[in-house]
Amino acid sequence: MKIFYLNNPASGNKNGAKYFPLIIKELDNRNIEHEFAQTEFAGHGTEIIGNLDFEKFDGIAVSGGDGTLFETINGYFANKSSKRIPVGIIPIGRGNAFARDLGLVSDRWAESIEAISAGKTKKVDVGLFTTGGKKYYFINILGFGFVTDIAGTAYKLRMLGNLSYVLGVFYRTAALNAYDLKIEADGKILERENVFVEISNSRYTGRDFLMAPSAKLDDGLLDITLLNKLSRSKVLQCLPKIFKGTHIHMKEVETFQAKHIKIETGTPKLLTPDGQLMGSTPIEVECVPKAIEVFYKAGPLEKGKNHPM
Q1: Mean pLDDT of the region 134-139
Q2: CATH pick for 131-288 out of 3.40.50.1000, 3.40.640.10, 3.40.30.10, 2.60.200.40
Q3: Which residues contact 178 (CB under 8 A, 6 or more apart)?
Q4: Neighbours of 42 (CB within 10 A)
Q5: pTM of the entire structure?
């Protein structure tokens, strides 16, 4: 087996740089032939993977967080190689939500390389969205509204680690305002006063938020979560519930599934596809069924434990 290994040295507060030599050693120990590259700037991963000759490799391995995976996926679909190869995720970033649904976690990152070595793959869905006339792919989640406002504040305070999100929540709650939303999901139109929208391919977002408890990676559908107008105190009650997925039982929350979605908002809203801050509403989103193959941890998935694929 020969893989191309892409590493983001800045991921996970520079965990990428810390783990890079350890990952190389683990690849060697498992006799996995490899070439590698490290990203140097935002968007570099998309550029590297987009220009890669897939014919030379049996797979891609990427170490980083959800943002690094976002760049990899967009480079993958921009790549002109006729051969398609599976992608393996080595989760060492701050958020590894998609990897979690594959049974892969950061404190056991070596298991990700074991999964690549075993060669067990599965085809999963991806999301395709259009913003500003340009098309992009996401594999985990696409959100906007209050959740994006928090992410933007947390990014500015990222040197504070996990505390940045806590501060972001309180700061954005104080400035909370609902906005007009029009969403068309598989032909059904809803109009709401909305606080946030999340469109999920996988169950988790960030490190621990169980945003879409029923989402499956290969069902050909995206799971939509709407949080509609509510008081500031209710927002603070809602957020802890997302850790266990019980927010979906609140009367202000609506959940449903769709293949094709169109969204307009009263004012343009910044997007967070797979944790990135880019693009804005209006948007059009569709599920591309089983569009990419991924390496996964075979045991738990095959037994149906905790990973509803």
Answers
A1: 97
A2: 2.60.200.40
A3: 193, 194, 195, 228, 229
A4: 12
A5: 0.89
